[in-house]
């Protein structure tokens, strides 16, 4: 007969797992995927290595959960800005790219890990899936812009993929360099301008 | 006293290494990084697993060499087209993106492995370095275009990074789908148009 956990035990387990994922995310942000060993994560979470493995079967499974959680938050924020009522699609695109880039520049370590840093293949697979979600939210606003006549005819899926790849690549180097206020502002301005050009928005917009 | 190899032995070793890298590249193109085991590569090269390890200390080292060789060829071809005399910078940019995309579509398996497929971290590191080389060749032609007054003012490094990321991301899905003549042509056309917009080239160019 299998041992059944009580509701209180299940709650404690869920809270411990949550705490572990949060601490692991902080470790990844600090030292990157390669150095975020189970030992380092266990120490940061105030747990034994054995307890970490009670929650996740492998370092890879924990890394995937960290990636999924943090990337999920970013794509959600971007989607909300891109769909926000009361603004035209081009404004929303500019705002969305700006918000995404500023959030990345404010959490450089984590953003670098999510967007670009070499990671184990399981995280790489997850990254491909998330890039698909970014593409979807961009394609939606571009399609709307074409429909509204504020963007020229184009394949919205190609431009959406282009923006997804472009924004990630533009941010790679700045995310691994030390923060500088003015340089960061100029970069965000350039990135937004490039994104609008890429989608064919009129420059004067 | 160390045993010295004769010139004839060194030649044979170099030829065997060359053959091994070529066969390994074909295996990666066929089955991807994850399935390109040392056993599979050894079989394809008609060598023993032990001989493979005489040439490369690890699967990772062989993978890096395969990556470096194949990516080196692509960035060289792109650089040549982007620098070709007798054409203006915008024409060269359009031609370069078109040539790059067509070459990728003609060697889908390999291009997918080079551009996007999750791979071990050592290959990921190498990919970041090569993206830097792509950025340099794009930045050069964009800078030239701005100087010649055929491209608007912009940070050439941002646009170059954007193009590098954009082109890779646009090609990911098509490279993993079966080849279709017309669809491939349309994709290349869209990709070139997007790249020109991204750099701010006048649409009628």
UniProtKB/TrEMBL annotation, chains A, B:
Coiled-coil region list: none
* Keywords in alphabetical order: DNA-binding
User: What positions does the domain HTH tetR-type occupy?
Assistant: 14-74
* Ranges that cross the membrane: none
A Pfam family reported for this protein in Swiss-Prot or TrEMBL:
TetR_C_24
Q: Which domain of life is it from?
A: Bacteria
Does this UniProt record's set of keywords contain DNA-binding?
yes
What this protein is called in its record is TetR/AcrR family transcriptional regulator
